[in-house]
Each structure stands twice: as C-alpha cells, then as structure tokens.
C-alpha cells in the first residue's frame, strides 16, 4: 500500500539539510555514487540519513529517487523537499521504501534527500538500496557489501556502532599552515582535543589546498632533524594533542595556489572509526605569522 504525504516544510529539517550541504561543500568533489553523508551512528539513536546525489545517469538529470528502508529501523519520517512529491511505501505499518519524484536535479548538482529514523539497539550494518531514475536511464545502487570486493553500484551502507562522535567530542583548534614556496612542503599545525570517553585514532587528513596531506613526526637525532611518516595517532579519552613545529605535523605536498598567506583553507581529519572532522586552517607566511 502507498501513502501519499503532502509536501511541507520543517525548519529543523531545513537546518539539518543546510548543515549537511555545508559539510558536502567542505568535502568538495562530486561523487558518482549515491552515498550517505554520515555513514556511522550509534545503536538506538535517532539518525537522519542524508542521501547525497551528485550525478545523474551518464549525464541525464535525476528525476526520482527511491530508497529502500531496512527492516530493523523504526519511526521512519522522510523529509519533504520543495518541488518534489513524496511517497512512502508500507507493508502493514513499517515503512519499506521512500520515493521522491516530480522534480529534477541536473547532472553535477548535488542534492540531499533526508530520512529520519530510530536505529536498532544493536551494532550492525544497514544497507539502503537506492534506485535513481533519470530523464534517460536508471541507476541501481543496490549491491550489498562483500568483504574485499570493490562494488560497481554499492548500496549506501550505515554502520551502527558504538563509536565516539568526533564532531561532538573531538575538536580541532588553532589550525594553521606555514605557506612555503611551491616546491617545498608546507607544515600544518593544530590542537586536537578528545572530550569523549573513548580514545580516538587519527588516521589521515586531506585538503583541497594540498595535492596530498600526510601525517608526519619530526625527530631530532644528534642534532639532525628529519621527518617520518606516521600511520596513525591516538588521542586518549580526555586528552589533548598538539601538532606543532618540531613535532607531529601535517605535511602539505604539492600545495595548490589557494594555500597563500591570509587564506582560510578546509582540512578534513579522518579517524579510524570512519568519522571525519572538517576544520578550517589559517594560512600564515614562512615566519608563522
Ligand atoms: Cu613533514
């Protein structure tokens, strides 16, 4: 049975959507896949799935999106989007799928489709198979994860797991880069504070201002300075870690022109629990000012 829901607006949803759009803008780079904006959430929590559509079907605009809802989520509410009509498909009372249609997104434009839900109280992975209908053609993002296999059309997957929310408990402050001539890698420095009750592990970083951004550690052996690549860095619960000249730092290789003194550039820090954190780093001159 299909229930038609009238389009309307909700300030909360709009706020969430705007925050999510901002996050998407920070991450940059449109991806072909339909993916979840936040792919990890805590068991038993209220979660808003944002399905990010950044491309049509081989260039053709997207005209409908149908998302299948996993069996073990409850209290499913889809966000009405201006211009789109919304259908919920049900089997008895549980919602089995949500469909947005009657509008279009041009290829290359990003849009987010949101569905709020209550997650199961157990650690698990939930797949949301998506059918993307375009003016011409259709894409089926329905392949389920298989260990060690790179899928062509993966379904968006949410990991329901007990992990600290890095956006909530981990903060980045005083982020800055020392801009050096283009041939020389530029150091990035910041302070990472873990206010959560579990240790977190920083595994990498990236920035549109850098061709590559690496985790480095400066070491001094008998007066000789050298740097070593660091695979990951733990920040204990309640701990603070300073990335500073002469110690741990980010190394911005192949800096882009946007890395110039006075600029503010986005940096995404990635953590082992698959969370990431978007920060802005100030770009300073060679003297660090
Ligand atoms: Cu370095």
Summarize the structure.
With 289 residues, this protein is mainly beta.
Could you explain the architecture of this structure?
The protein folds into 2 domains: 2-160, Sandwich (Immunoglobulin-like); 166-284, Immunoglobulin-like. The strands form 4 sheets. Strands 14, 15, 16, 17, 18, 19, 20, 21, 22 and 23 form a 10-stranded mixed sheet that branches. A 6-stranded antiparallel sheet has the order 1-7-8-5-11-12, with no helix packed on it. It starts with a strand and ends in a 5-residue tail after the last strand. The model is unreliable at 1-10 and 21-31 (pLDDT under 50). It is mostly beta strands. It has helices spanning 11-27, 166-169; strands spanning 2-5, 35-36, 40-41, 46-53, 62-68, 74-78, 85-90, 95-105, 111-118, 124-127, 130-134, 138-141, 157-160, 170-178, 186-194, 200-206, 210-221, 224-229, 233-235, 240-243, 248-255, 264-271, 276-284. Residues 216, 227, 249, 251 line the site of copper (II) ion. Copper (II) ion (CU) is lined by residues 216, 227, 249, 251.
């Amino acid at each position: 049975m299909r229930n038609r829901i009238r389009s309307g607006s909700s300030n909360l949803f709009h706020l969430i959507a705007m925050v999510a759009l901002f996050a998407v803008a920070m991450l940059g780079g449109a991806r072909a896949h339909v993916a979840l904006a936040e792919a990890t959430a805590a068991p038993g929590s209220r979660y808003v799935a944002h399905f990010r559509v950044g491309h049509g079907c081989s260039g053709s605009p997207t005209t409908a999106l149908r998302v299948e809802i996993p069996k073990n989520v409850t209290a499913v509410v889809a966000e009405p989007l201006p211009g789109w009509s919304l259908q919920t498909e049900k089997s008895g009372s549980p919602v089995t799928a949500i469909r947005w249609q009657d509008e279009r997104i041009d290829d290359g434009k990003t849009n987010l489709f949101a569905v709020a839900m209550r997650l199961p109280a157990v650690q698990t992975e939930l797949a949301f198979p998506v059918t993307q209908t375009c003016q011409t053609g259709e894409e089926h993002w329905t392949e389920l994860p298989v260990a060690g296999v790179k899928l062509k059309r993966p379904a968006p997957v949410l990991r329901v797991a007990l992990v600290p929310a890095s956006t909530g408990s981990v903060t980045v402050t005083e982020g800055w880069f020392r801009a050096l001539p283009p041939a020389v890698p530029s150091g990035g420095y910041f302070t990472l504070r873990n206010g959560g009750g579990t240790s977190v592990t920083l595994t990498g970083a990236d920035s549109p201002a850098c061709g590559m951004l690496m985790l480095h550690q400066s070491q001094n052996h008998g007066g000789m300075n050298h740097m070593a690549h660091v695979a990951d860095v733990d920040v204990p619960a309640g701990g603070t870690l300073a990335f500073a000249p002469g110690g741990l730092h980010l190394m911005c290789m192949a800096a882009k022109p946007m890395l110039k003194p006075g600029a503010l550039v986005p940096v995404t820090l990635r953590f082992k629990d698959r969370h990431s954190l978007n920060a802005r780093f100030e770009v300073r001159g060679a003297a660090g000012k």
